[in-house]
């Protein structure tokens, strides 16, 4: 029994080792990808609910791995956060997004997701404003998307960074609204420009009374606070009509358009 126990232990040890090695390998590949251009940015349109006009695009990072093919951001963004690569990743996405957005007509905005880890650096606002300046994009055309995770480690620092960016004209959206634990308390700490309703609510809205009630409540709250609302994950005409009837401001989802490379966006807007 004793030797059997040791065998089991060795087995786990070997499995752990393998996982750790796979992770280290992926981390090494990500570092490489950041320097040799294997990362790219795709864009998904956001439309005005009433007029169907395109208001902007959300930048979503993509990794085309030489052996594994497309790796979704849900797999490598957390890895970048744990391994210290997220600053470099974040700068790459922001710079690429600003450069691409310069080719779009003036009111069309670009939205960029920021990791809470990026807010640990006190010079984040200066870095962002520096990139806007270097790429020649006016601050009012950038929207940054943060989740409530941003307020968790160092609320004061995060608030200072958001306030500085907002003062410079950058718009600030609260992403995945409704999925966290304390979204409401953040609304009294900072005046967000926009709330993005998580797609889990939109997906259930048509068949689930509770989801529809939650969406109505978020819309009423946002209206009274004078904050715009985007509904995420809109996939059907039925969802689009329901959201329009509820006076939602903006829609995003596969129905309006999937994320695509910058070169495929011209069909969404009249060129500048
Ligand atoms: P998110 O910010 O909530 O982005 C929306 C996600 O929903 C995207 O997944 C998008 O492709 C997907 N989506 C959009 N419309 C629909 C729809 O109608 N149906 C369904 N089923 N899905 C839809 P993606 O691109 O895989 O990104 C996943 C998450 O990874 C993002 O969630 C965001 O949290 C993170 N992420 C992506 N790019 C970046 C980045 O550049 N920086 C950081 N820090 N995080 C990023
Ligand atoms: Ca987002
Ligand atoms: Ca979201
Ligand atoms: Ca999400």
Automatic annotation (TrEMBL):
Superkingdom, taxonomy of origin: Bacteria
Q: Where is the EAL domain?
A: 23-272
UniProt-recorded name of the protein: Uncharacterized signaling protein CC_0091
